[in-house]
Amino acid sequence: MATIFKTLSSDDITSTRTLxxxxxxxxxxxxxxxxxxxxxxxxxxxGMFQSVYDYPVLSSSANHLFDLTCGYATGSGLNNAANEQxxxxxxxYGQMAQVLVGYGADGSVLEFDxxxxxxxxxxxxxxxFVNISRLLAKDEIRKGTFxxxxxxxxxYGTPFGSIKTISDTGADQNYRTNSPAGDYGLLxxxxxxxxxxxxxxxxxxxxxxxxxxxxxxxxxxxAEESQALLTGSDIxxxxxxxxxxxxxxxxxxxxxxxxxxxxxxxxxxxxxxxxNPTYLSSSQVIVKSGxxxxxxxxxxxxxxxxxxxxxxxxTAKLSEPLKKDPSSTLTLRVRLDY
Length: 338
Prior knowledge:
Blueprint (H helix, E strand, L loop, with lengths): L12 E15 H5 L8 E3 L6 E4 L10 E9 L13 H15 L11 E2 L9 E2 L1 E7 L1 H4 L2 E2 L5 E5 L11 E5 L8 E4 L2 E6 L10 E4 L4 E5 L15 H7 L2 H11 E21 L13 E2 L2 E2 L12 E9 L5 E13 L5 E8 L1
Antiparallel strand pairs: 1-15, 2-3, 3-4, 4-7, 5-6, 7-14, 8-15, 9-10, 9-15, 11-12, 12-13, 13-14, 15-20, 16-17, 18-19
C-alpha cells in the first residue's frame, strides 16, 4: 500500500548551531577618505556623528562601515556650558552609557568603567565612540579579534611615524557579561597587565575609546591634544581628527547559523508506490511490466515537510531521483537553516 504521510518523532529531529566567521579589514585610505577625496565621508546637519562608507556616499555601491562620535559624562571635568556643542556631547555620552552600561540602584546612568567592575575603579568619562555597522559586525564581533592601529606620532602631517595598536587581547577567555547590551571586552595598547584604554561591545558592535588613549599625540593641525579638542571643537572636527590617526581597523565578525535537521526514514515497506497518475495504466502498475509478481518501485525526487494539519511548510528537492523498492531503505537528511 502506498505511504503518503509519515509522522516524525522527536528522535527524528535535532538542532545544531554553527558560528561562521569572516575577517573584516578597513584600511587607512578608506577611513581617512583619501581614496575618494572625502566623498565617502558623510556629515549631518545635526552634527552629532559622522558616517564612513566604503565608496562615495552617492554611489549605489556604497556600504555603510561605521559612525564616529564623541562625548563626556555629566560629572566629567570637561563638562562646561561654554564648550563647543557641550550639551550634545553630554547627551551622546549619556545615550551610549544608558544602552551599554545601564542604570545604578538609584536610577542614575552608570559611567563606562575602565576595568569592567561597575562597583568601583576608574571610569571612562571622556570617550570617542566607533559604532560599527551591522553590515560589518553581523551578529557580533568575534572575541579576541578586534584590532585598531592608530598613529601616535606628535606630528600631525605624518601621524603614522609611530603606531599604537589597540586590541582586545585575551578577551576570548576573559570578557565581561554585566552589560545590558551583551558581552564586552577590555581594550589594551600592550600587556593586559596595564590599564585598559577602552571597551568593545561585541553584540552591539560599539567601540568606546578613552580620550586619554592618545596621550600627548596631536589630534589636529592646531596641535590641540585630545581634551582640548573635545572641549574646543565640534563633534565633526573630533571625528575628522580621529579618522586622520586611524591606520586600520580589523576584526572577525560572527554569523550564527541555526539549523533544524529532519531525518526522513523510508523503511523497506514504505514509499514504494507513487501517487502520480502516470504510475498506473488501466489500473495496472506500469513499472511491474504486466507481471503482478514483480516488486513495485518508485523514484523519490523531493521531500515535503507538513504541519499537523497537513499544510505544506517546506519542500526539499533531491539532486537526482532515488530509486526506492521493497529491498531497500533510505534516510533522507533535510536541513532548515535560519
